[in-house]
C-alpha cells in the first residue's frame, strides 16, 4: 500500500498535537495514581478520555487559528496551513473528539470528572483561544484548562476534589506560567507577526516577561512546603520537591538578570520540561511510601 494513502491519517494524528496531548494524559494519570482509590477500568477511562479531549481541543484550536498559523514559522507546517485537511473536516474531527472525551470520563469515571473534562475543553477552545488575540492575560487564563488534567485524574479516582486535588491543580497552574513566559519570549517575532497579544509584544527588553516568570515560579516552593505542613506529603517530597522548585526558580532568575535573554529563556523552557514529570512522579512515590 502506498504511503500516500496514510497521509490523511497522519494529518489527523498531527492535529491532536500528540506531544502536548500526551503531557495532559500523563498528568491526568499521575493525578489518578496520587489518589488512594480507583480501579483498572477507571484508569483506562482517564487515559482514553483525557487523550480524546486534549486531541479534540488541539484540533479545534488549529481550526480557529488556521490563518494565524500560516503566518508563523513554527506552525506553518501544520495540517491546515499545508492544506493537508480541509477546515470542515478539521472542525468535525475536533468536535467529535471533544464530545467523546467528557463522555468517556462521565461513564468510565464519574460525573464530576466528566464535567471537569468538558470545562477543560470549553475554556481552552472558547475562552483561551480567542483571547490570545485580545489580551496578554490570555496566558494566565489559558493556564486554567492546562491545570485541570491532574485534577480530572484525581476526581476520577476519588469522586470529589479534595485538598490534594486542588494542590495538583495549583502546581500545574503555576508551573505553566514560567514555561509559557519562556515560549513567549523565544517566539516573540512569530507572535507579533500573527497578531497574538502575548506579553512579549509589549515588553521589548524581556524584563517584564522574565519578572513574571520569577513571580510564578516562587509559589512552587510554597506549595511544596505547604503539602508537608498539612501532612499530605513526607520528607521525600519535601526535600526533592523543594530542590526541583528551587532549580526551576533559579532558571527564571537567570533569565531576569541576563542582558541577553534568548539563551536563558531556552534553559528555562528546558527546565520546565524536566521539572514537571520529575515533580509529579516524586509526589506519587512519596504518597505511596507515606501510606505504608
Automatic annotation (TrEMBL):
It is found in: Cell membrane; Membrane. GO terms for biological process: heme O biosynthetic process. The chain crosses the membrane at residues 20-37, 43-64, 85-105, 111-129, 208-229, 235-256, 268-290. The keyword Transmembrane applies. Pathway: Porphyrin-containing compound metabolism; heme O biosynthesis; heme O from protoheme: step 1/1. Its main location: membrane. It comes from the Bacteria. Its EC number is 2.5.1.141. It is a multi-pass membrane protein. GO terms for molecular function: protoheme IX farnesyltransferase activity. InterPro entries: Protohaem_IX_farnesylTrfase (IPR006369), UbiA_prenyltransferase (IPR000537), UbiA_sf (IPR044878). CDD domains: PT_UbiA_Cox10. It catalyses: heme b + (2E,6E)-farnesyl diphosphate + H2O = Fe(II)-heme o + diphosphate. Keywords: Cell membrane, Heme biosynthesis, Membrane, Transferase, Transmembrane, Transmembrane helix. GO terms for cellular component: plasma membrane. Gene3D superfamilies: UbiA prenyltransferase. Converts heme B (protoheme IX) to heme O by substitution of the vinyl group on carbon 2 of heme B porphyrin ring with a hydroxyethyl farnesyl side group. PANTHER family: PROTOHEME IX FARNESYLTRANSFERASE, MITOCHONDRIAL. Carbon 2 of the heme B porphyrin ring is defined according to the Fischer nomenclature. Belongs to the UbiA prenyltransferase family. Protoheme IX farnesyltransferase subfamily. This is Protoheme IX farnesyltransferase. It comes from Coraliomargarita sinensis. The lineage of its organism: Bacteria, Pseudomonadati, Verrucomicrobiota, Opitutia, Puniceicoccales.
